[in-house]
Every structure is written in structure tokens, then in C-alpha cells.
Amino acid sequence: MSSKSVSSLCSDNVGITKGDSYRIAWQELAWLLSHANSTAEARLDLLKSLQTALPSQDSRDIANLKELLPDLIVTQSRLADREEELDGALSLLSGNPPVSHMALNQDTIFSVATEILSAAQRIRSKV
Questions:
Q1: How far apart are CA 110 and CA 104, in angstroms?
Q2: Cα 15 from Cα 8, distance rounded (Å)
Q3: What is the C-alpha to C-alpha distance for residues 65 and 55, in angstroms, rounded to an integer?
Q4: Do 54 and 65 touch, CB atoms closer than 8 A?
Q5: What whole-number distance in Å separates Cα of residue 28 and Cα of residue 55?
Q6: Are 44 and 73 in contact (CB under 8 A)?
Q7: 3-state class of 18 per DSSP?
Q8: Sign of the C-alpha dihedral, residues 47, 48, 49, 51?
């Protein structure tokens, strides 16, 4: 089964279509946000590792990268703290969510599913 067909299957089964709109359950949205937050935490670690690994001699390209990294790391760190709070708030409401489903673009679910599957395929290809 291709990634595209699996992604389509996922988007078809995660949400429901009502008329022209696509809706996703609270629990699915909370899981997707948590997954995105985990990815963001890994991104922060990658940025920090890159900053540490850069050589001290500065070509123009390395200097540009060194200039970008501190701001990205600070911003990502602040965002990670807020995302952790979001995960906690969503968890507190998971037993009795304020809404059962939310409108969402189905392409978003398809895109997330495709990215997850692509990551899994890349890992499998390295093993």
C-alpha cells in the first residue's frame, strides 16, 4: 500500500465529513497537537546540536547560520514551554471536552499522515 493511499485512509478515518466540511474529534486533535509538540522538541535539540557542532572558523555561510541559530533556539524554547502547557490543558479537558468535533481542513490530516509515514519509511530504509 502506498504512502498516499495510507494517508488518504488515515484522513478518511480520523475525521468525519459532513456536507462540505471535514471535522475531527477532540481526542484526535489533542493527539496530533501532542505529536507536533514532540516533533518541535526534537527540532529544538537538533538546533542546539547544530549550534554546538559548527566550526569556529567563519565562512560567510557559517556566519549566517550562526547568526540565525540563537534567535531560533530562544524562540523555539519559549514555544516549547507554551506547547507543554497546551498539552496539559488539553489533557485536563480530554475526559469532558468542551466540543466533540472541530472543523479542520482535511488536507492538513493528509499532510500530517504523509509526513509521519515518510519519517517511518526513512527510518526503515536506514535499518
A1: 11
A2: 11
A3: 11
A4: yes
A5: 43
A6: yes
A7: strand
A8: positive
Distance CA 90, CA 97 (A): 8
**pLDDT for the residue numbered 73:** 96
Vertex 111 angle, CA 98 and 27, to 5°: 20
Q: 102 and 30 in contact (C-beta within 8 Å)?
A: no
CA 108 – CA 32 distance, rounded (Å) = 10
User: At a CB cut-off of 8 Å and minimum separation 6, what does 36 contact?
Assistant: 112
Q: The C-alpha cell of 23 is what?
A: 471535522
- For 5, the grid coordinates are 493511499
Walking along the chain (127 residues) 10 residues at a time, the average pLDDT comes out as 61 71 84 86 93 87 91 94 90 90 83 82 86
pLDDT, one tens digit per residue, over 44-76 is 999 999 999 998 877 888 889 999 999 999 999
